[in-house]
Amino acid sequence: MSERPERLHLPNEASAFGVVEKPLSAWERLYNRGALRKTGLLILLAVIWEVYARLLNNPLLFPTFVETVKAFAEGIATGGLLGKAWFSIRILLVGYSAGIACAALLTVFAISSRIGTDFLETLTSMFNPLPAIALLPLALIWFGLGPGSLVFVLIHSVLWAVALNTHSGFLSVSNTLRMVGRNYGLSGPSYVGRILIPAAFPSILTGLKIGWAFAWRTLIAAELVFGVSSGTGGLGWFIYENKNQLEIPSVFAGLFSVILIGLFVENVIFRNIELRTVRRWGMQS
Fold first, then answer.
1. CA 77 – CA 158 distance, rounded (Å)
2. Please, are residues 197 and 111 in contact by the beta-carbon 8 Å criterion?
3. I need a labelling partner for 145 at 20 to 30 A (CA). Which of 20, 95, 221, 258 fits?
4. Residue 25: Cβ within 10 Å count
5. Can you tell me the distance from the alpha carbon of 240 to that of 244, in angstroms, rounded to the nearest whole number?
6. CB-CB contact of 158 with 100 (8 Å)
7. What pLDDT sits at residue 209?
């Protein structure tokens, strides 16, 4: 047997293979940040708003962005805008929480039996297309002029979206996960809490987002109609009052506040919940 000759391979220079890893430029690093991209879009919209308002030159019809920011700052400084915003948020939290609780009860009933499923599907098909604002006359008759009527329409806004998405999420849980839970002896609330809710959480979170959006829109619309109670009211009433007084920059400041609260809830609260749950669990990329 002849001996195998030894071979010595020296490492090749990285330049021989061309560009293996290209470092990102400063622009590419900035562009890859979603927060910076969204901030740039908001700045662009503000510039378009300012230019259009100056070209229109009619403050009673469309105030400039600068005038709106001034009215917003004045409302914050005097505390009037903050008080209205807190009134709306407080009512929203009560109605949103009650709507989620009712949706949870309906969903548990639906996954417990076929009759419960039929009951939820029937109620959802009946009431989900019904705008909550259409229930305002009944709310006034039943609960009078005050927070009770607002909470009632908020529950209607939240209930069906959350219940429908939660139930759909539970139905989409794979049989493998269901059998794993049964093999571990889980049943009842422990089975729902440890198997169904984590597996269906993307759908549940979607329902919570939709319910929040419906509730926030319904609340502002309801306050525009009858949102004052005992001399107080929320952001919708703030917008309505300033419209009657032809304080158009303050009207836009109220709308600006509604948008800012919506952006905060969507991009801070729900975003952090998503990052700490479905993204960490690998359910979404």
1. 33
2. no
3. 258
4. 9
5. 6
6. yes
7. 92
HSE-up of residue 214 (Cα within 13 Å, Cβ side): 27
What fold is seen in the domain 64-276? MetI-like fold (1.10.3720)
C-beta separation of 90 from 175 below 8 A: no
Tokens found for residue 80: 């009037």
Both tokens of 155, joined, read 């529950």
Domain residue ranges of the chain, discontinuous segments joined by + = 25-57, 64-276
Please tell me whether the overall predicted TM-score, pTM, comes out greater than 0.90 for this model.
no
Q: How far is Cα 196 from Cα 65, in angstroms, rounded to an integer? A: 48
**Under a CB-based contact definition with an 8 Å cutoff, are residues 278 and 203 in contact?**
no
Helix-helix angle 235-244:80-112, to 10 degrees: 140
Q: Tell which residue, 211, 207, 202, 204, has the closest CA to residue 92.
A: 211
* Tokens 């098909």 belong to residue: 125
Answer for the pair 111, 170: CB distance below 8 angstroms, yes or no.
yes
Angle at 30 between CA 28 and CA 34, to 5 degrees: 110
The three-point CA angle 196-200-204 to 5° equals 120
- The alpha carbons of the chain give a radius of gyration, in whole angstroms, of 27
